Amino acid sequence: MEKLIHIIEGCAVQDRHCQQLLYDKFYGLCLKIAFRYVNTYEQAVEVVHDGYLKMFRNFSRFEVRDKDKVEMLLMGWIRRVIINAAIDYMRREINNHQTYAIPEHVWEHGDDRQLSDNSLLYKELITLVKELPPAYRVVFNLHVIEGYSHPEIAKMLGITTGTSKSNLSKARAHLQKALAAENVETILWQT
Predict the structure, then answer these.
(1) Is 0.85 surpassed by the pTM of this model?
(2) Fewer beta carbons within 10 Å, N or C terminal of the chain?
(3) Which of 183, 103, 175, 100 has the alpha carbon at shortest distance from 137?
């Protein structure tokens, strides 16, 4: 806890060593967040780097209000910065509709544990989400995974609340159709 507070204080005064420690500690989390929004590993890395640049430029804005919850508060702030960096990136790359395979090392845990069933289901869901059209994918991620409300999403993306709701509905319909198709393939494969 004290080490994290030291890192935060160092980042607020642009201490390069503290910035490197923060980068190393939260890089994996940031990469997983970014990868839900963009198509390739390389794009996710670019989003993460853009996000870290924004964090380091504005770290003095992050304040430790409750030392007992410092890691949770910091992770929430980092998540918001990376999501905003991903949205900014998607705005710049709006015409790229290709989908790409997800490299296996993105899913690796910090230790040697085997992936649980929940991790496998999450991996399959994210793979299907990445196949959604970009507008649907962003709204789905922001609402379902990140927990933002439709008015918050509308404000973030510069769309109406109705458009946010419509995109979520269409995203869910696409995912249900994809899941139904996968279930049929699985049943046919098992017989």
Answers:
(1) no
(2) C
(3) 175
SS3 5: helix
Domain with CATH 1.10.10.10 in the chain: 117-191
Report, as an integer, the average pLDDT of 10-38.
Answer: 93
How far is 150 from 191, CA to CA, in rounded Å? 43
- Domain 117-191's class? mainly alpha
Retrieve residue 11's tokens: 């980042």
| Tokens found for residue 107 | 């899913």
Please tell me the distance from the alpha carbon of residue 21 to that of residue 17, in angstroms, as a whole number. 6
CA distance 35 to 126: 9
Other CB atoms within a 10 A radius of the CB of residue 37 amount to 23
CATH of the domain spanning 1-96 = 1.10.1740.10
> pLDDT band at 47, cuts 50/70/90?
very high
- The set of residues, in sequence order, having a beta carbon less than 8 Å from that of 43 and lying 6+ positions away, is 34, 89, 93
In the chain, residues under CATH classification 1.10.1740.10 are 1-96
User: Considering only CA atoms, which of 151, 150, 143, 147 is closest in space to residue 175?
Assistant: 143
Identity of the amino acid at 96? N
pLDDT score, position 31: 94
DSSP 179: H
d(CA 44, CA 31): 6
Residue tagged 């705005």 (tokens): 91
